[in-house]
């Protein structure tokens, strides 16, 4: 079998969920993600130009998001993130605001603005205080928990939390369609998940079967593969850069802590030899601290 694209890479995700001709796949995912009742199930979605804002370099990367309009006019933006840049809350609100305000046209009334939903699928644990893999946020009054408006809706879907539940058999893709679609994103790295999803696709889920067939097809397309590998390399480089920055920050933090400890020892009149032994600083470094 052909090695399939890793759907956690945003380019691959968009190739499957955000490409014209695959709207039924996107609609099935959104029905599962947004938990619409049967009478309100999405039948069709319209893919939109993701270039709703290009004010800076970071905005231009939103071309790899999946941006769509539902039948009731609601806007949805789906972003998948491999690497934790530690900025998701502000980043999410920024893109939500741009997507919401981009609806406004000259002469348009505020009442015509439609609900705007952002879905963040992340390949890392992000909301450490929340146990569930799927979290939904809206605007509520703090004390009485009353919803101010449903115009803003933000979803976080954390794949590592889902995988733990899957391995502990706490979730079942046969019973939960969101579990089904999110596990598909992990299937390139897990043969058991692939086998289970292929069984479900053959037995009961024609849209999932279409998604798996399309995934197989794009994974063999030379042009798609070329762009995919370039994007995957860029994400790996980004991950390495983030790790280096994190390591550098930790090292700097430890150095600052040791400096404070050494300064405290100096104030207490300890000898340089003792300070050097306890902190690892050289005689020259301790001398500089004495003259700060």
Written description of the protein model:
- Keywords: Plasmid.
- This is Transposase.
- It holds the Pfam family PDDEXK_2.
- The protein has 292 residues and is of the alpha/beta class.
- The chain has 2 domains: 211 residues, no CATH class; 71 residues, no CATH class.
- 50% of the residues lie in helices and 13% in strands.
- A hairpin with a 6-residue loop joins strand 5 and strand 6.
- It is globular and about 80 Å long.
- The model has no long low-confidence stretch (mean pLDDT 87).
Poorly predicted runs of 5 or more residues = none
- Which strand order does the major sheet show? 1-2-3-4-6-5
Largest sheet: 6 strands, mixed
* Structural domain tally: 2
As an assembly, this protein is: single chain
Shape: globular
Which percent bin holds the helix content? 40-55%
What average pLDDT do the residues reach?
87
> N-to-C terminal Cα separation, in Å?
66 Å
Keywords: Plasmid
Pfam families: PDDEXK_2
Protein name: Transposase
Quick summary:
This is Transposase. This protein has 292 residues and is an alpha/beta fold.
């Amino acid at each position: 079998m052909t090695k399939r694209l890793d759907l956690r890479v945003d380019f691959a995700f968009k190739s499957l969920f955000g490409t014209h001709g695959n709207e039924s796949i996107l609609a099935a995912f959104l029905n599962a993600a947004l938990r619409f009742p049967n009478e309100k199930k999405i039948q069709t979605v319209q893919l939109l130009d993701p270039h709703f804002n290009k004010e800076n370099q970071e905005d231009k990367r939103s071309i790899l998001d999946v941006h769509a309009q539902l039948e009731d006019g609601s806007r949805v933006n789906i972003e998948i993130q491999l690497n934790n840049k530690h900025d998701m809350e502000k980043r999410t609100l920024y893109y939500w605001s741009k997507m919401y305000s981009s609806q406004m046209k000259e002469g348009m009334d505020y009442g015509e603005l439609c609900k705007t939903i952002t879905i963040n699928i992340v390949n890392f644990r992000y909301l450490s205080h929340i146990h569930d893999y799927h979290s939904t946020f809206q605007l509520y009054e703090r004390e009485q928990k009353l919803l101010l408006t449903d115009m803003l809706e933000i979803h976080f879907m954390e794949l590592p939390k889902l995988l733990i539940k899957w391995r502990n058999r706490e979730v079942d893709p046969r019973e939960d369609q969101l579990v089904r679609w999110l596990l598909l994103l992990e299937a390139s790295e897990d043969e058991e998940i692939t086998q289970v999803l292929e069984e479900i696709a053959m037995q009961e889920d024609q849209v999932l079967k279409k998604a798996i067939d399309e995934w197989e097809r794009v994974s063999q397309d030379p042009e798609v593969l070329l762009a995919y590998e370039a994007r995957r390399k860029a994400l790996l480089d980004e991950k390495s850069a983030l790790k280096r920055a994190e390591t550098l920050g930790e090292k700097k933090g430890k150095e600052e802590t040791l400096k404070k400890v050494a300064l405290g020892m100096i104030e207490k009149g300890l000898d340089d030899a003792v300070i050097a032994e306890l902190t690892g600083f050289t005689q020259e470094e301790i001398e500089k601290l004495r003259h700060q």
